Amino acid sequence: MVTYFKVAFVFLWMLFASCKSQNNTKKDIKIEQQTVQTKLHNNNPVIRHIRTADPSAHVWKDGKVWMYTSHDMEDAVNYDSMDGYHAFSSTDMINWKDHGEVLHSKDISWGAIGWMWAPTAIYKNNKYYLIYPHSVKGSKDDMRCGVAVSDVPEGPFKDLGWIEGVEGQWLDPCVFTDGDGKTYLYWGVREPKVARLKDNLLELAEKPRTIEYGNTNFFEASYMHKRNGKYYFSYNAGLGGFYGMADNPYGPFEYKGAINPKQRQDHHSVVNYRGQNYFFYHWQNWNGGSKFSRNVAIEYLYYNEDGTIKKIYATNEGVKKVE
Known about the structure:
The chain folds into 2 domains: 1-41; 49-300, 5 Propeller (Tachylectin-2, Chain A). It has 1 helix and 19 strands. It has one helix spanning 2-41; strands at residues 51-59, 65-72, 85-90, 97-103, 120-124, 127-135, 143-150, 158-168, 174-177, 183-187, 193-197, 209-210, 220-227, 230-236, 239-246, 254-264, 269-273, 276-283, 295-300. A 4-stranded antiparallel β-sheet has the order 1-2-3-4, with no helix packed on it. Strands 5-6-7-8 form a 4-stranded antiparallel β-sheet, with no helix packed on it. Strands 9-10-11-12 form a 4-stranded antiparallel β-sheet, with no helix packed on it. β15 (239-246) and β16 (254-264) form a beta hairpin. Belongs to the glycosyl hydrolase 43 family.
């Protein structure tokens, strides 16, 4: 009888162990499937092989989405070492081709090594231009607004010098061409400025104006875009992106509040690609990143019926592939 119970116990124990093993296997498979699913849908940040920040996004005449970014160093403890702008292009918003370094401080005869901060870009005069802040002697207080040109969007870009009358602390320029062909430069730290540029893009066509935007929280990273006849002046307030709206590129702008309220150091740009609006910005918190080592991310951008912008919050998912 004892032997019978021993055999029965061993049999039941083996059956239990087998069921547990199968359950664990199913659980492992489920976890593995979830991991794959997460990898498939976590598209932010979109650039991971190098640190990139300050994305200036555009849809050029070739039908591709292009973005020009500054380049953070992996273990940076300040912004002095930022160098070498990169150009990226995509046709589906997920797969981005790195066209490499398109302009480096060593290519700029009038500036210091490093100090290649947030660039902007424009297509004008049948050429592509980078307009960028760069230090003359290696200080945030002696920045100039440089201009470089290329015949093709992927560069390389050749420096042409700087725009006279635009200097001071870090500038974070944004360049915007209106429907009438007039081009405007927005820049500044703590006090936003705007002025129309001459067609050569190397000279101001007028005296700079201080932008009235209905608040006092402007810090840096001016940006301008236009939709349905309305002009959107947006910026980084130090913690989050905010904006105002106007009927002309100078303002005054009616303050509308936050676009990206919880993203520290918001420095953004906006494009419409195949009927969908996209918001480009950068993260600090991916894979050991910091405020000096950032990565570009993308979210969908939506407008309310009255033209105001729906708030954006950073997501791991980002945007889906455009087919």
